[in-house]
Amino acid sequence: MSMTSANSDPTASGTPAIRPLVAPRDIRAIARDLGYSPDWNWSWENYKNTIVALTNEYGLRDHLEIGGGRDPVFQPPELVRHGIKVTINDISQKELDLAPPEFAKLCCDIASPSTIDAIGRNRFDFAYCSMVMEHVPDVAQMWRNIHGLLAPGGAALSFFPTLFAPPFVANQLMPEALSRAVLHTLFPDRRDDGGNPKFPAHYNYCRGSEAVIVPLLKEIGFREIVVLPFYGYSYFHKLPGLRQIDDAFTRLARSRDWRTFTSFAFVIARK
Ligand SMILES: C[S@@+](CC[C@H](N)C(=O)[O-])C[C@H]1O[C@@H](n2cnc3c(N)ncnc32)[C@H](O)[C@@H]1O
């Protein structure tokens, strides 16, 4: 992994131009340069852009997409375009079988105590996941494993829904069958058991506050840990009345940065 970038472009006279070494930007600067906004739409629109920006900044070529399942972030032609190799992990072989055949695949529980021994230490430059952490009952073990799987200088990014956004609190409190039924009613085209299954959610460590996850990641050995909070969602958009009340509360929470009521977060850290 390259950690610095030096440019020595030839000048018109043919003499190489000597430029100072450019220190890589830190994670916050990368997010700022991508136009970070705490609006939830930004998180969905920029998850992939953030992966690409971190990849290029820190020279992260060998990726592990955790819980990538049937729908990995990158399409096969993009691997060549970005100069990366991506291994897709999932706990479900059925999901991996539905993913494009061009990817390397690793079927295992990312949070199992045997995962590092099974995969090997320092194997990847970059590990990331979207909408997976909330399904993992032991998130501390998941991050310990990610730390072990990453090479020194590597990075990790997790994008996940957070408590105590009301829809996710409801999802956690409701019996699984009821939350499935509600989801299917509100979003009939988004999730069904044949096409897109709904996975049980635990929300372990799924908070938008640094106070919850930073001490854990520091203890594990990560550095430069950044939490990017997001506010808002579309779950109540079809429910007039509730929608307006919820929108007003979301605006207030966002303007005051009340981390208790974030809806999503990125956690980004480096080994
Ligand atoms: C909600 S889906 C998200 C899929 C994909 N990342 C996306 O954003 O569309 C959750 C995925 O995580 C996988 N998963 C759940 N627990 C896991 C674990 N402990 N280890 C690896 N994968 C897991 C599920 O099988 C499923 O494919």
Automatic annotation (TrEMBL):
One of its GO terms (molecular function) is S-adenosylmethionine-dependent methyltransferase activity. InterPro entries: Methyltransf_11 (IPR013216), SAM-dependent_MTases_sf (IPR029063). Residues 64-156 form the Methyltransferase type domain. Pfam families: Methyltransf_11 (PF08241). It comes from the Bacteria. This is Methyltransferase type 11 domain-containing protein.
